[in-house]
Amino acid sequence: MNQAQLLAALAPEIEAINRALEANLTTHVPFISQVGRHILLSGGKRVRPLLFVLSARLCGCRSNHLADFSTIFEYLHAATLLHDDVVDAATVRRGTSTANTIWGNQAVILVGDFLLAKALSLAVTTDRLKVLQVLAHATTMMAEGEILQLLHARNLDLTEEEYFEVIHRKTAVLMSAACQIGAIVSGAPPEQEEALARFGLNLGLTFQLVDDILDFTGDERQLGKPVANDLKEGRITLPFIAALKRADEAGRRRLRELAREVRPEHAGEIRDLLESCGALEYARGLARKYTRAAQDHLRLFPECPEKGYFWGITEMLLARTS
Amino acid sequence: MNQAQLLAALAPEIEAINRALEANLTTHVPFISQVGRHILLSGGKRVRPLLFVLSARLCGCRSNHLADFSTIFEYLHAATLLHDDVVDAATVRRGTSTANTIWGNQAVILVGDFLLAKALSLAVTTDRLKVLQVLAHATTMMAEGEILQLLHARNLDLTEEEYFEVIHRKTAVLMSAACQIGAIVSGAPPEQEEALARFGLNLGLTFQLVDDILDFTGDERQLGKPVANDLKEGRITLPFIAALKRADEAGRRRLRELAREVRPEHAGEIRDLLESCGALEYARGLARKYTRAAQDHLRLFPECPEKGYFWGITEMLLARTS
After folding, report:
1. Looking at residue A224, what is its pLDDT?
2. Torsion of CA B270, B272, B274, B275, to 10 degrees
3. What is the pLDDT of residue A149?
4. CATH no. for residue A254?
5. Which chain A residues are within 8 Å of B149, Cβ to Cβ?
């Protein structure tokens, strides 16, 4: 199945998710819908809700509520995006002005809190305490991950281990929860639940690694944000950590110098330094490794359309350019 | 029972709550404990955890986990305080520097998220889905209340009804949830659960009304913040709304003028204007009315020490001066 076929096959699911995202954003306060819609409907790949829906279907679930339940993960994700953008004082996301630029930090912090609360309210409607348990744990880990990232800001001595601790918590745990909860709402046996949790975790690590590679190698218009934006904002990611290990003395000195103040005109030089010392290839290799690990956890499941979609998604997320 | 006797009787509960607040603040990231302890252990009356513990005992619960469960409400409350202080750019709370002044807005937003997640994780340990349902609903309402308050900022045409909508959501709903969840973890019958939810709601309305009166009439050192701070920050509260209705033409004009830029030297004049037109007495009357309504909901329960404590707490919160 090529990417066009995959996207065509998933289109009805994504449409159902988008409808549910609008329908469940009910609130007593119209202003909240306005800010919520801005962050929810200005793009986004719906990766997390899709992971949930496909996991549930892979476990044989045929419930009509899957699209509604899937919004839990997008609302939670949107809540963290809103708070992240305030924390980073970000002005552009997905090529559009960030909510904090339009409505101010105050409103955006509170709408983030609202979306988190909404996610929980929806999680309660699954009528399974275990869903709340996994979600509460994921939410705690995500907050810890964001705080670790903040504490590590501009630390050029960050280790690969510390980097993985951050991305595990801030990204992989929610994707893992989306998959695991798909299994839980289906009443799947423990080994399927475990396999999907691990599938999601490895997929999440790949997803963040690719994000961090694209930050250096991507196209500004495709990314919807400036190149080397992470480095500029003080987030030290794997390609840069690897380059500080692999580059020669002069390269390392230059990279440390460039990290001090990242200017748009330096993006090309930084990318070339990362490429020439093999750091980007090293990072790509890790992304491939985690993709294979994710795919391995699918073996447990019999052949079916959903398994094929999952396989295609892992390949697509690995190969993506934005 | 006088206030000294009441506080002596409650001291062991409050000590157990304080120990549980420290013990349950476990995290992988020591920095989070540091910020968390600052907001949690720098004073605070422990009203919400106490409401929970006493409600559970009133319903006959003798579980050893009550102190641990009670931290849910203090962590959730602390999370909203952290976000509020960022939203209000507050520098002083309870006479101490706010966390955002010490560690910056970014860290404080994220530690707020962590505390909210922690509260949920603890709620899951009650093993009752209904607890999560009430809590998720309360969290949603609280976020809406905070947003409404922000949208109403500096609106001198705010109605009494709009004011009550805000304080119902931002304050009363959590106190109501603490009481209701006390009944739920005890497996109390629906009429007791309902009575405690309403008791907490009315107590919460009193609590906020008294807070808003004290903002004008209290002593700066006792309050731990400047007098007329709400008005200065743009929060239009009941005493001011009532005064804009009750004062004569000249008084109304002067109040509107003073609201534009609140200076410390005007605090006395504002208080006198509110007092002379009867606005403060009107607000005090409403606080008494909600206290009586709260007390009415206790009638359902047989006489016991906890009922006496609750009665005493309602009187104490009504009569408090800080």
Report:
1. 77
2. 160
3. 95
4. 1.10.600.10
5. none
Q: What is the DSSP letter of A96?
A: E
A129 interface with B at CB cutoff 8 Å: yes
Residue B93 backbone phi and psi in degrees, to 5 = -140, 135
Tokens representing residue A23 in the block: 């329908």
Give the 3-state secondary structure percentages of chain A, helix then strand then coil, rounded to 5.
75, 0, 25
Residue A7 tokens, joined: 């996207």
Look up the domain containing B168 and give its range: 3-319
End-to-end CA separation in angstroms for chain A: 21
Query: How do residues B208-263 score in pLDDT, each as one tens digit?
Result: 999 999 999 998 888 777 889 999 999 999 999 999 999 999 999 999 999 999 99
Whether residues A132 and B132 touch (CB distance < 8 A) is answered with yes
Partner residue opposite B106 with nearest CB, options A32, A140, A150: A150
CB contact set of A293 (below 8 Å; sequence gap of 6+): A198, A202
Q: How confident is the model at residue A1 (pLDDT cuts 50, 70, 90)?
A: confident
- Which of B77, B113, B142 to substitute to test the interface with A, most A CBs within 10 Å? B113
Tell me what the mean pLDDT of segment B288-308 comes to: 97
In the predicted model, what is the mean pLDDT of residues A301-310? 96
Three-state DSSP state, B29: coil
Please say whether the beta carbons of A110 and A122 come within 8 A: no
Name chain B contacts of A30, Cβ cutoff 8 Å: none
Question: How many structural domains comprise chain B?
Answer: 1
Q: Which of residues 32-61 of A touch B (CB under 8 A)?
A: 32
